[in-house]
Amino acid sequence: MKKLMIILSLCLVVSACSTSEKNEEQQPKAPVAESESPNTSISQHKLETAEQIEGENREKQKRKGELDLDHIENVNVKGDLLESVMSLLHAVKNKDKDARLNLTYDPSFDEFSAAEPYILAVTKIEQDNSRVKAVTDEYDLKQAAEEVTIVKISTKTLDSSLKETVGTGDYIFVKVDGLWKVYRFQ
Fold first, then answer.
1. Do 182 and 173 meet the contact criterion of CB atoms below 8 Å apart?
2. CB proximity list for 73: less than 8 A, separation 6 or greater
3. Which of 80, 175, 179, 183 could disulfide-link 105, Cβ–Cβ 3.0 to 4.6 Å?
4. Distance of alpha carbon 120 from alpha carbon 69, whole angstroms
5. Where is this region: Disordered (predicted)?
């Protein structure tokens, strides 16, 4: 009988404890004032440091001196298209925003404004009509342009480790009112 009483007592104590814990969980807790945890502060500091380092690296990647347009290899870019491409590149070199925008179909797609300080040289221009039909259909250019072509423009820049690298971009050019204009980078 004594053992039975001890077991019943233990059951009551365990039951009472679990009920007490359950009630504490259900009671609303007072809101804790929001404050930055040390982890948030450290994360914010790391982010600011990373942004500062990135900004310093971007500054180091900027071109010193003039944009080199004197050593461009030309593949199949001829006539008035060549004239427009070279005029655009000279406008970029001379930081002539008005001339650059005059040779841009839609100023909201002014691809060269942000890239200009980082381009060391233009190394190659090449007309590539392999995707003209697809691009014309994709952007519905039949109505807007007399002609459409793609010019691959290769530029030399500095990569994040400050080594020279050459990259090539496809630029869609459209002929509107007899003048070739850059439509978009693709």
1. yes
2. 123, 124, 125
3. 183
4. 9
5. 20-65
